[in-house]
Amino acid sequence: MAIKYSMLGLLVYAAMVAYLLAGLGLATRYLPSRFHAVRWGMYPHVFVTRLTKVGWIFYIIGFLISISAIIIRAINVDHIPLRSMFEIMLFMGMAMFPVSVFSRQVLRVGGEAVDAFVAALVLFPAGFVFPTNIGHLPPALQSPLFGPHVIAYLLAYAILAKAAVQAFALLITPGNEIAENPDCSRAQAMNRMVKFGFPMLTAGLLLGSVWGKMAWGDYWNWDPKEMLSLATWLVFAGYFHMNSSPRLGPRLRAAAVLLGFVLILATLLMANLTRIFGGMHSYTT
Amino acid sequence: MASRVSKIRGVLIWLGLAVLFLLAGLSVFGAFLGAQRAKNFFNSIPLAIFWLFLAELLLVSLIDWRNRKPKLGVITIHLGTLLIICGAMWGSQYAHKLRALWMGENKMVVGQVSLQPGQQAKLHDLNIKLEKAWVEYYPPTKPTWDLFYETRSPDTLTAVYQPIIWQVGEPVELGRSGIKMTVKRYVTDEANPIHDGQLAPPVVILEVSLGDVGGELMFSVKDNVVTARLPLIALFDSESAWSMAGAPSIVFDLGQAVKDYKAELSISDTTGGQLAHKVIEVNDPLQCGGYHFYLTESDGTGQNVTIMLRSDSGLWIVFTGFGLLMLGLVINMWLSPAWRASRLEQAVTLDTPREEEGQV
User: Is A224 in Cβ contact with B32 (below 8 Å)?
Assistant: First the structure.
């Protein structure tokens, strides 16, 4: 673990701070109203609205900083910066903001405070753990499918992480309602996020498969990372089949989503960071 | 009758769930096996029966939709998945063997051949000729060479490399061999050619000694060479003595990464008629006669190249399945809810939002 004193490192830290402040600002809506109303001498809704707005401003600032870091990295490495774990974490940190906005505006699913904290969390290894070594793209990665394959997967992971947050809340809280989304229960919010993320997860899998055929001769190479990503896909496919059975309630479905998310973590991190799962994806260091 | 159909549907859903979670568990198990063992495991006879059962289940579920309100997206998803499984089975090694046995189809699943530029080889009724092969490199990232001390195990010939930390004028011992090396000069100045321009920079002038034997060596390489080896045979009485000592060599490495491997390939039939000709590279194979031809291995100079050919049987069925699966998911999970939401917004005062928990 080391502090990065480079321009890129400082941008990562700045984005982390902005996301943490955004998370704190956006989380104020979860505080009991009497807490701030008395202390600040304001009406609760005014106070919360103002802090939420400040939270959104920091969220936007964090996004702009992280996208600047990605652009600088792309110029430095002279290819799509999605090869190393540092670059992947940087992209994930950037992707949480558009996912939050789309979820809020289109899917009517909230949870931006958690999203901002997750963005700060995924930037932590980029800032302190993974090296920023610049590496050339090896021949196999010089494919037009490289960018779409990785981006589809990373967006799917960000979206399904939101689904997992809703699933976790559904499992630990007795009620199914969300205070900030009166038109949407937790089960519905989870379902909307999974329905949004699953086609992207599939796109990532299929694009990788087509690319595998072009580069290595087969659309399925039984590589450990492929096997784990297939397991993830199957668990989420199972989730949709569970929806068809009335006997399987929302809590069981939430458990399936959490299982899928655990497999995502295994696919994203274990396959690249441990020696247990060697294979053709292990050059992503 | 209705309750019987409902029961069958219930059984189908439970079977589908069981199969999906079982396959997920097997996939996690397969991840721990490693690629080759996982491939063998998923192509074993019990698993082949499992794949057949899964295909049958998908087929039954498609037939079952005749009794229900048709959902285009869901049907497309299941049809796509069925095609992927069928295409994969059609392209498998077992299917190739069965077709050869029953239908007399003469096609190999996979094969490979090592060639040098100008050489040709016959592989399953096809003549493969390697016209030329070359390696492209990224520009060097540093101006000087890294030096490594290389030794080889006399039994396995496996090479071991140790980086040599050197400074001009300072002697360094190479491993525990007793060989001493001093970089006397390192010339990188393009404007200062060595030996009246006969040697182009970078030129390394070394002094190497082993006991009383030693001398000065001058090392230079041609353009586009990024790694070179200098065997220290001169320090030993004979080549066999050098081999017994672990074949000590100094390796010069400019640290240039490979950008691409390329090979110009011609495919002709048994009569000599050319079928295809293409410069292939990683990510860009040649397609000809029901096979794809890949450049799978190349040494650093492009003098030894391995070409692999792979049967395309079932490939387009699988790719059609991919397309249908993706299309079905987009229809079912993105377009259909968006269309439903737009209709609800128009009739927001007349209708309440429908419970939208997705079903397949």
Answer: yes
B309, containing H or E segment: strand B305-311
Beta carbons of A195 and B21 less than 8 Å apart: no
Report the predicted TM-score, pTM, of the whole model to 2 decimal places: 0.83
Q: What is the DSSP string of chain A?
A: -----SHHHHHHHHHHHHHHHHHHHHHGGGS-HHHHHHHHTS-HHHHHHHHHHHHHHHHHHHHHHHHHHHHHHHHHHTS-S-SSHHHHHHHHHHHHHHHHHHIIIII----HHHHHHHHHHHHHHHHHTS-----PPPGGG-STTHHHHHHHHHHHHHHHHHHHHHHHHHHHSS--EETTEEEEEHHHHHHHHHHHHHHHHHHHHHHHHHHHHHHHS-S----HHHHHHHHHHHHHHHHHHHHT-TTS-HHHHHHHHHHHHHHHHIIIIIHHHSSSS-STTTT--
Helix (H) or strand (E) holding B78: helix B72-90
Q: Minimal CA–CA distance to B178: which of B200, B196, B151?
A: B151
A278–B30 C-beta distance less than 8 A:
no
User: What is the 8-class DSSP label of residue B246?
Assistant: T
Best mutation target, A207, A221, A229, A244, to test chain B (most B CBs within 10 A) = A244
CA distance readout (Å), B239 to B146, B244, B251: 26, 9, 18
pLDDT at site B357: 44
Contact B140, B132 (CB under 8 A): no
Instruction: State pLDDT tens for residues B89-116.
Output: 999 989 999 999 999 888 889 998 999 9
CB atoms within 10 A of CB B303: 13
ipTM for this prediction: 0.91
Which residues from chain B sit within 8 angstroms of residue A271, using beta carbons? 31
Q: Which residues of B touch A258 (CB under 8 A)?
A: none
Q: Cβ separation of A213 and B28 shorter than 8 Å? A: no
For A177, counting Cβ atoms within 10 Å of its Cβ (0-12 exposed, 13-18 middle, 19+ buried), the class is exposed
Q: Is a pLDDT exceeding 50 seen at residue B355? A: no
Judged by DSSP in three states, B192 sits in coil
Q: Quote the minimal CA–CA distance from A181 to chain B in Å.
A: 14
Q: Spell B229-255 as b/e; 16+ CB within 10 A means b.
A: ebebeebbeeeeebbebbbbbbbbebe
